[in-house]
């Protein structure tokens, strides 16, 4: 290579490196952070990486640490100490709750509230957070089967998020090749679709190159920003695909499924609801096999608990519906038939939000009333749940 051409290439490389360093420094000064807390999992597709940590600022602002067993929680001995009451909470990002400090999550607050539960009788209570972002009910059942029982809980709570859990459970709607699906069969059984194990993406994540990239993501804000853009794009694509099988217009919050607010109007949404209910039955049976009470808590979408009733009315008029309670009503009726206690949080939290004129979803760096619970949302949910959960402990097995 001629010296002049070589000099131009060196100058280009140097200027590119300097530009990247300046951009990296700028992102750090601006507080831009999107750490990668997840790695491949051969059963659930992905899971939290043990001992990962970082500052989450994409929505809310919190320092996040993952414990040695891959939970967004404190360290817990696997063997349950004598006299302790343990509750395992399954769920998605609403349970994982990267948006708020660990002590402000509903799991942590519920732990404090239950200290006054008569059924506890003064014993120590631990609420274990098994939430992982992006999980549907299928992955939560797999978590129950493969991760939870070693902790010997006295109660299992599955936190159901109607905003996207139904779609997550049905491959024809979700179209995500990187997650497992549990497909209901005519005899009521479930078969595991674990074809994600054969995808190029999953295989690549097992390689040494991928492990190097995980390390690079931990330290580079530029790479974190690129990953954030891809994650956002994937979420929008999933929601768009789900919206294509309903004639109802799209609502104001991207990434959620307005089709859940009304009875299914096509075969795909019918299949998604049927699969969801079959998975919940299987979770009930799994818990029963371990002689452990099982219950479902239906969480809230931002629209269900918007503090302005006029906004909720306009949204319902746009969708041509008279209520936002269809997913909660369906779950409650299903639970009554199947012997699964169900608590729908939306009615109580909507009343609180309207009375106090407070947003329970949303953060200063996001749209008000959208996204995940903020501190007020987590606190309201925990206090609403506490008495009901206390009743479940009183009526079920609470190991001594």
Descriptive report:
The chain has helices at 3-29, 93-96, 106-113, 137-148, 165-168, 171-174, 200-204, 208-219, 221-243, 267-289, 309-319, 326-338, 346-356, 375-395, and strands at 38-41, 45-48, 53-56, 62-65, 85-90, 125-129, 155-160, 181-184, 190-193, 294-298, 342-344. The protein has 400 residues and is α/β, with parallel strands linked by helices. The chain has one domain: SGNH hydrolase (Rossmann fold, 3-Layer(aba) Sandwich). The strands form four sheets. It has a five-stranded parallel β-sheet, sandwiched between helices. Strands 1-2 form a two-stranded antiparallel ribbon. α3 (106-113) crosses α14 (375-395), α4 packs parallel to α10 and α8 packs across α9 (221-243). The chain starts with a helix and ends in a 5-residue tail after the last helix.
């Amino acid at each position: 290579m001629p010296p002049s051409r070589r000099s131009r290439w060196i100058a280009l490389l140097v200027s590119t490196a300097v530009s990247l360093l300046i951009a990296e420094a700028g992102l750090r000064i601006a507080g831009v952070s999107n750490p990668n807390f997840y790695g491949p999992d051969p059963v659930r597709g992905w899971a939290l990486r043990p001992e990962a940590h970082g500052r989450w600022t994409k929505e809310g602002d919190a320092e996040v640490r993952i414990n040695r067993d891959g939970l967004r929680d404190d360290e817990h001995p696997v063997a349950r100490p004598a006299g302790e009451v343990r509750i395992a909470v399954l769920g998605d990002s609403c349970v994982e709750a990267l948006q708020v400090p660990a002590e402000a999550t509903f799991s942590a607050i519920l732990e404090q509230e239950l200290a006054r539960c008569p059924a506890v009788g003064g014993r120590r209570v631990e609420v274990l957070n098994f939430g992982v972002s992006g999980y549907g009910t299928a992955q939560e059942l797999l978590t129950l089967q493969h991760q939870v029982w070693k902790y010997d809980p006295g109660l299992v709570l599955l936190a159901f998020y109607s905003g996207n859990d139904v779609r997550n459970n049905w491959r024809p709607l979700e179209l995500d090749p990187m997650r497992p699906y549990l497909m209901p069969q005519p005899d009521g059984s479930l078969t595991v679709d674990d074809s994600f194990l054969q995808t190029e993406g999953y295989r690549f994540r097992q390689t040494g190159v991928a492990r190097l990239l995980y390390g690079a993501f931990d330290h580079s804000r530029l790479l974190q920003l690129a990953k954030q853009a891809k994650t956002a794009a994937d979420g929008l694509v999933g929601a768009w695909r789900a919206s294509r099988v309903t004639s109802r217009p799209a609502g104001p919050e991207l990434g959620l499924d307005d089709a859940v607010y009304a009875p299914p109007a096509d075969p795909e949404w019918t299949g998604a609801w049927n699969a969801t209910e079959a998975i919940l039955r299987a979770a009930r049976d799994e818990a029963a096999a371990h002689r452990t009470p099982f219950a479902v808590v239906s969480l809230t979408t931002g629209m269900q608990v918007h503090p302005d009733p006029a906004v909720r009315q306009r949204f319902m008029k746009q969708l041509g519906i008279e209520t936002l309670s269809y997913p909660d009503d369906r779950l409650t009726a299903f639970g009554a038939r199947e012997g699964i206690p169900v608590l729908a949080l939306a009615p109580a939290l909507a009343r609180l939000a309207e009375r106090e004129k407070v947003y329970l979803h949303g953060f200063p760096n996001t749209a008000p009333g959208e996204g995940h619970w903020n501190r007020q949302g987590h606190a309201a949910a925990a206090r609403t749940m506490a008495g009901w959960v206390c009743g479940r402990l009183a009526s079920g097995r609470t190991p001594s």
